Structure formats: structure tokens, C-alpha cells
């Protein structure tokens, strides 16, 4: 079951990387190319949503003791999906602003350069945020594993203490 989840994870990672690249290209394209890119990104976003649904179904089938780790991964993937959709919405707004400027005859090269610079900075910040979230995710998973190990050690200690008590009872008898 987890191998299916992992293959979905890989597909999701590849797909989100493609979407991120295409979202960055949307404001730079012109005319029909831009329209086609918007349609392609919308299709890929829908495909990513479907992958998330498949991953959720897989998480439900995973045994409860392992489910926590996968559920936390799902939360981070959903957050990433939300960010992608927000980025896409921003790029479409930039697209509609450019169409408006073309229709009105505005020459917004300097504002366009500023917007591109801001979008690049935003993309860098979001990548950094994703890295931080991934680090946090690993820390949470490590904490969960540590907690499980402590519980196992506690159970083992109880077993050893009971065995010692039995041995001392046997010796005294």
C-alpha cells in the first residue's frame, strides 16, 4: 500500500514541478501561446487534485500505527497544492492586466519588469517556505518515530521487570 502512495508522491512531485515552471512562464507569453499555457496549467492542476485524492484513499488503507506519518505528508501536499493554485491565480491576474494594457495601449515595461522581479522573488520565497515545511515535516516524523521507540522501550522494560520478579520468586521457592 505504501508503495502505491510513494509512486503517487513521485508523480505529484513531478507534476507540481511542471506546474510551477509553467506558471512562471504564463506572464511572459503572448496571445494564443499564453491562452494555451493557461489551459494546460488548468488541466495539470486538475490532474494534481486527482493525485491528491488517490493519495488520500491510500492513506485510509494504511495501518493506523503508520498512518500519522502519511497524514502529515498529505497536509503538506495539500498546502503545496493551495500555493500552486494561488500562484496560478496571480499569474492569471498578471495575464489579464497585460491584456488590459494591450487594449488600452499602455506601455507598462517598467511595471512589467517590476512585476516579473516581484514574481521571481515570490517564487524564491515560496520555494524556501516549502523547504522549511519539508524540514518541519521531517522533524515531526522523527519525533513520532522517537515516541514510538520510547513506548516500545517502556514495554520492554516492563517485561524485563516481570521476568526478574519471576526469577526471584523461583529462586526463593
Description:
The protein is an all-alpha fold and about 170 residues long. It has two domains: about 100 residues, Methane Monooxygenase Hydroxylase, Chain G, domain 1 (Up-down Bundle), CATH 1.20.58; about 50 residues. About 90% of the residues lie in helices and about 0% in strands. It is built from four helices and no strands. Keywords: Coiled coil, Golgi apparatus, Membrane, Protein transport, Transmembrane, Transmembrane helix, Transport. It is a single-pass type IV membrane protein; Single-pass membrane protein. This is Vesicle transport through interaction with t-SNAREs homolog 1A.
How would you concisely characterize the structure shown here?
This protein has four helices and no strands.
CATH class of the largest domain: Mainly Alpha
Radius of gyration: 26 Å
CATH-defined superfamily of the largest domain: t-snare proteins
Q: What separation lies between the terminal Cα atoms?
A: 52 Å
Enumerate how many helices there are, as a single number: 4
Annotated CATH architecture of the largest domain:
Up-down Bundle
The CATH topology of the largest domain corresponds to Methane Monooxygenase Hydroxylase, Chain G, domain 1
Any idea what the shape is? elongated
- What is the number of strand segments? 0
Instruction: Please give the share of residues in helix.
Output: over 70%
Biggest β-sheet description: none
Oligomer: single chain
Order of helices and strands: HHHH
Mean pLDDT across all residues, rounded? Answer: 83
Low-confidence stretches: none
Integer count of domains: 2
